[in-house]
Write a structure and sequence with these properties.
This protein is α/β, with parallel strands linked by helices. Helices cover 39% and strands 28% of the residues. The longest helix is centred in the middle third of the chain and has 15 residues. One magnesium ion binds next to loops. Belongs to the ABC transporter superfamily. Ycf16 family.
């Protein structure tokens, strides 16, 4: 599904190398987790996958279902089935949540040469998804993320994901700032979307999210590289001993 090979990324503005050769293959239907100390480059990896400005790929690359991801515009990436939920979801004053969702869904359909959803169909779809995520109608009418609590923003991103039905979902620290109940809701939302044709890359600082979203593979990232890969037990090891042991073992 997603293949990242020897990815090297530096900041455009500064001579600072952040990713120093990331190799990662996420197979269809699998959930991979990336853990790692602060500043190791986890968010940078998700930004580069999304096509955010300010980064320069100096070597290596990334493909989504065999297509060169880094050559695509951000909208093309979304149409190709990539979805990213960020650590800090953006607020869009003046744009209602429903309007935003419908525009995003129709843009994706158009790029794929599919028909737009009718207003009625869309309303039915969103109401159904919102209900399972315990998002109330009021929140659907408000401007995107404006004045939403941390937990509401995260839930709203899972709603976007549920509506857009991407094939490759990247979640960057979707757990940060969530209380236990909100984390459970978000995890349930993700788990409900798990499917043989859909993959997830879950970036998290803490093991506790992985109690709810059980990963198939866990990677540890440090200083711009994946330094260790294992099963779910690797996350438990980090929880128990921190990163120091793993990093010392690598050195
Ligand atoms: P993580 O998500 O693992 O905590 P980040 O990807 O946010 O790590 O950051 C990796 C490193 O790159 C850090 O040292 C961070 O300070 C640096 N960095 C990222 N973006 C910028 C930027 N725009 N300007 C300066 N430094 C940056
Ligand atoms: Mg960080
Ligand atoms: Mg980060």
């Amino acid at each position: 599904m997603l293949e990242i090979k020897n990815l090297h990324v530096k900041l455009e503005e500064e001579d600072k190398q952040i990713l120093k050769g990331v190799n990662l293959t996420v197979e269809a239907g699998k959930v991979h987790a990336i853990m790692g100390p602060n500043g190791s480059g986890k968010s940078t990896l998700s930004y580069v996958l999304s096509g955010r400005d300010g980064y320069e790929v100096t070597d290596g690359g990334a493909t989504l279902e065999g297509e060169d991801l880094l050559e695509m515009e951000p909208e093309e990436r979304a149409a190709a089935g990539l979805f990213l939920a960020f650590q800090y979801p953006v607020e869009i004053p003046g744009v209602g949540n429903m309007t935003f969702l419908r525009t995003a869904l129709n843009a994706q359909r158009k790029a794929r040469g599919e028909e737009e959803v009718s207003a009625g169909e869309f309303l039915k779809l969103v109401r159904e998804k919102a209900k399972t995520l315990k998002i109330d109608a009021e929140m659907l009418k408000r401007p995107v993320n404006v004045g939403f609590s941390g937990g509401e923003k995260k839930r709203n991103e899972i709603l976007q994901m549920a509506v857009l039905e991407p094939r490759m979902c990247v979640l960057d620290e979707t757990d940060s700032g969530l209380d236990v109940d909100a984390m459970k809701l978000v995890s349930d939302g993700v788990n409900a979307l798990r499917d043989a044709g859909r993959s997830f890359l879950v970036i998290t600082h803490y093991q506790r999210l992985l109690d709810h979203i059980k990963p198939d593979v866990v990677h540890i990232m440090a200083d711009g590289r994946i330094v260790k890969t294992g099963g779910p037990e690797l996350a438990l090891e980090v929880e128990k001993n921190g990163y120091a042991d793993i990093l010392a073992e690598m050195a």
